[in-house]
Amino acid sequence: MPHIDYYFATLSPYTYLAGNRFEEVAAKHGATVTYKPLDIMALFGRTGGTPPKDRHPNRIEYRAQELVRQAKKYDMPFNLKPAHWPTNAAPSSYAVIAAQAAGGGDLGKLVHSVLRAVWAEEKDIAEDDVVKSCLTAAGFDASLADSGLLAGAETYAANLEEAVDKGAFGAPFYIVDGDQRFWGQDKIEDLDLHLSGKL
C-alpha cells in the first residue's frame, strides 16, 4: 500500500485548485496519506523561492492569468484578490494537525473547506469562528480549534523542516513512499499514473 506525505499551505491558491482530485487519486490506489500543513513563505525562503509579492512583474502577471485559467478549467469559484490574503495561516494549520490526530472526520474535506474559505468565500481563516465552522463541516469537533496548540505549533514547524529535508519547495507537494516527488495541482494526473505503475 503506497503512502503519500502531502505538504501544503492553507493559504495556497494552487492547493485550493487541487480540489478533491488528490483525495480521489489516493483513494483509487488505496494510498494512506499524512497531511502536513506548513508555512509556505518560510518554505520559499528556505528553498530559493520568492514570495508572490516580491516576484518580477512577468511572473506576477503570469500567475494571475494561470490561476484564473485553472479555476475555469476545473469549474471552481475563485477570487484572484481575496479580501483576507495573506493572513495568519497558523490557526487553520493547527486545526488540521489536531483533526488528523483526533480522527473521526474527513481531512480532505477540512483542508478544502479552509482553502475555499480563502479563495472563494472571502473569509479570514485566522478567525476562530471560521476555523471552527470548517472543522464542523468536515465532521470534526469544533473544539479542536482550541486544543493542542503547543503540539500544533511544534508539528507545524517540524513539517517545514521535514519538507526541506525531503526535497519539497512549494505547495501542494506530494511525496510517495519517501521518494517520488510531485509538485503542483497540475501533477495530480502524473501522480495517478505513477501509482498505476505507468510512470
Describe this structure in a few short sentences.
The protein is of the alpha+beta class.
CATH architecture: 3-Layer(aba) Sandwich
Order of helices and strands: EHHEHHHHHHEEH
How would you classify the helix and strand content by structural class?
alpha+beta
The proportion of residues forming helix, as a percent range, comes to 40-55%
Which strand order does the major sheet show?
2-1-3-4
Protein described:
This protein is α+β, with helices and mostly antiparallel strands and 199 residues long. It has a single domain (3-195), classed as Glutaredoxin (3-Layer(aba) Sandwich), CATH 3.40.30.10. Helix content is 50%, strand content 10%. It contains 9 helices and 4 strands; from the N terminus they run E-H-H-E-H-H-H-H-H-H-E-E-H. It has helices at residues 13-17, 21-28, 40-46, 57-73, 90-102, 107-119, 128-137, 149-166, 188-195; strands at 3-8, 32-37, 173-176, 180-183. A 4-stranded mixed beta sheet has the order 2-1-3-4, with helices on both faces. A hairpin with a 3-residue loop joins strand 3 (173-176) and strand 4. The chain is globular. The model has no long low-confidence stretch (mean pLDDT 97).
